[in-house]
């Protein structure tokens, strides 16, 4: 059987043109996906059933036992943390928010350790963005700033920018210019028309210089700014001003470097400046499959995109205080539910030391680095492969994902809903 138009559940591009060949309920071939997507569809070694740690040995348990364990763990915790959510569907994220509210816990998603600062900047000055389709069809200038899509979002270039056709471009490959701004010459820089190499930590200064040039204050620019010559800055600013439609895509190289959210604010203000001369947009290269969705679901349910603390009985948000890394580093939470992410592979050592001391339940199809910190791991259907649902693409477009395999694994949503039902039987005062 061939499943057409499947959605790849790996990165924020959510490519929706994947063809998957299934034989005997096993994926045997994948067409159109990049290597990252293909690996995801072909699958890894999965856990067969829920496992419970008993004196450093793993014991097989049933779904009912695992769900009961997780519900009891969260109900008896004083300050439970519900973390992850970027690798699962909106329907499961929705149950997670209800659950956090019921137990007065903290719910946070992986954006607090990736594009959280970008969201803070957008909250301050807005987001002049657009869909990927608009960029594909209209943009004659694309800037990748602090991002390397060849490695992290391989089909972004072939579907929307460098190698894509454009409805309003006669010859997109010739007419569309690509500029890469980065601290080192990446693979994406090798295929760009212009590479701007800046010194580490120099993004804010370079953005300020570009803004000044666009405002006509060229005389104020020194001979070099963060390693970039005045001539190159003027050339780039002029390329931007003379474009008919420009798009900036920024990655963690801009968000997580010195200056953090101030960099993004400056970049957005640079785009606002350009919009006095032409049309320009700016968007984040969201990494995890449905991390955008977790921000959306949290925002429409609570008013806040991540790091939401219900300990006061109402939603409270203060990044740096109510975010997972900070709560773990302060040794504040006394139980953790991890869904659709692998914090042990990314979090600082201090956080992991605390994670090792508290009860942890993880929902994930595969054993990963966080498994070593778990008391219980519940294997679930792979979101977007053997469970369908809603995910948000990096440009904020919600897409219904397909189920390509049928398995007996419960989905995240089913496990969380059963857990939530048990918890509702014994609500907190
Ligand atoms: Fe999947 Fe991203 Fe590759 Fe598209 S670019 S196939 S969404 S990993």
TrEMBL record:
Any Pfam family the entry gives: Molybdopterin
InterPro entries: Formylmethanofuran_DH_bsu, Mopterin_OxRdtase, Prok_molybdopt-oxidoreductase
CDD domains: MopB_FmdB-FwdB
Key words, A-Z: Oxidoreductase
Domain Molybdopterin oxidoreductase positions: 46-405
Top-level division of the source organism's lineage: Archaea
Protein name: Formylmethanofuran dehydrogenase subunit B
Species classification: Archaea, Methanobacteriati, Methanobacteriota, Stenosarchaea group, Methanomicrobia
